[in-house]
Design a protein that fits this description.
Number of helices: 4
Bound molecules: coenzyme A
Number of strands: 8
CATH class of the domain at 2-109: Alpha Beta
Largest sheet: 8 strands, mixed
Strand order of the largest sheet: 1-2-3-4-5-6-8-7
Oligomer: single chain
CATH superfamily of the domain at 2-109: Gcn5-related N-acetyltransferase (GNAT)
Radius of gyration: 15 Å
Helix content: 25-40%
């Protein structure tokens, strides 16, 4: 377990699929089944971190799941539970994934974010991500079609 002044991070293995699904279900309107996480976390597949705020001991507050493909990393899903938002935990998770991706040989990190998700976009932009593309009608949320923006960051040249 890794320690930050505000949080501890757990490196996930397939045994964490259930906790990841629970966290995802609290963060997003459309939950993913534990099996989806299990499939992604198979050996050689995606990586994930779970964050625990130090002050509360047990309760997990957020997660990030990403994968590497050659020298490109991609954030697949990422969230902090509502009670723990605006304490810098998403920033810790994102920077931790960026650092690990760089060490594993990635040059760039990509992600997709709903155009309407202004909080997440502000977070990514504050980390140096830039919008590089758009996928029209990419998300289908509560009966509405929403465009995704593709964001990219050169990890090596990150400030
Ligand atoms: C987006 C999300 C991960 C942010 O988590 P968080 O832990 O609250 O984020 P942080 O506290 O690390 O925020 C860091 C910075 O990002 C920006 N930010 C984060 N949430 C914001 C919001 N709701 N509105 C405006 N800016 C926001 C701010 O610049 C913030 O810095 P500040 O608090 O000093 O102003 C969280 O709101 C969440 O899980 N949302 C639902 C799932 C989701 O949208 N995931 C991302 C999908 S791509």
């Amino acid at each position: 377990m890794e320690r930050d002044p505000a949080a501890s991070l757990i490196e996930c293995s397939p045994v964490h699929a259930g906790v990841l699904a629970e966290l995802h279900g609290v963060c997003f309107p459309e939950p993913w089944a534990a099996d989806a996480f299990l499939g992604l976390l198979n050996p050689g597949g995606a990586s994930a971190l779970i964050l625990h705020p130090d002050e509360d001991g047990g309760e997990p507050a957020g997660f990030i799941l990403w994968r590497l493909n050659a020298d490109e990393a991609e954030i697949i899903t990422f969230g902090v539970t509502p009670n723990y938002r605006r304490r810098g935990f998403a920033r810790i998770l994102a920077i931790s994934a960026l650092d690990r991706s760089l060490k594993a040989g990635a040059q760039n990190m990509y992600l997709e974010v709903a155009e309407s998700n202004t909080g997440a976009r502000r977070l990514y932009e504050s980390l140096g991500f830039k919008a590089v593309g758009r996928r029209q009608n990419y998300y289908h949320v509560q009966g509405k079609r929403i465009d995704a923006l593709v964001y990219a960051l050169s990890i090596k040249n990150r400030e």
